Amino acid sequence: MKNIVLLAFASLIALSSSHVISDDHAGNGPYYAFYEFNVTNPAAVVAAMDEFWASECGKKYPADVALLTQSFNGANPATHSIINTFQTAEDQANAGEIMRSCPAALTFLQAVGASGAQPTSQYMGAAPIDENDWTQDSAFSTFNIIVEPQNQAVYAQAYAKMMKNVANDVDLRSYGIGAVYFGRDQFTHWIWTGARSIPELSSISEKLLTHPAYAAFNEEVGSLRTVVNTSQNIVLKGYARQ
What we know:
Elements (H helix, E strand, L loop, with lengths): L1 H14 L15 E8 L3 H13 L1 H5 L3 E9 L7 E7 L2 H13 L1 H12 L3 E14 L7 E9 L4 H16 L7 E8 L6 E7 L2 H12 L2 H10 L3 E15 L3
Antiparallel strand pairs: 1-3, 1-4, 2-3, 2-8, 4-6, 5-7, 5-8, 6-7
Helix pairs in contact: 1-5, 2-5, 6-8
């Protein structure tokens, strides 16, 4: 069983990182790759990540990376997630090569497998709306939604308009809509709102959800989306691209 878990987690981190974005999107990053898993020993995962990113291969890893705990996420079995931010499709391909060939990366994958981590899902995509720098925030509310293809442009435009209006009255941090390119078996998009702390996130969320622009947004396009899951995520540790 331990070997099966290790191979599955290696597939999430390494093999899916080797898939190159289609030509229509090449170079139009950033791209966000999420790897969700369930683990009862997160300290072991942190130790494994610390060791890898201190290595020569880790210093060459072409992405900003963060480990998050999913503090509230409904019935989703994941307890944590790792997010990779690739600026280009070439960065993604290079990261996949490092994870497949570098001894330090293989050691990292073995350590994560030994921690008892059970992979639950993985997905990747770009963010048509990506405001401010999410790496400056440490707490996030996330909505995973389904929007049918014929409605996606209208929905994104309405969301952008709504958030611009809210920003006139609320000190927003990072926010945006991400579109799932690969791993799209549960939802088509994720929407996030960031903050520097849980209290600040709660304040922003309350002001956002009670703003007149939000009511107008729901009136206009609320029927075009299906909410699959809502979650609160907290950054445990970040690893900036070196």
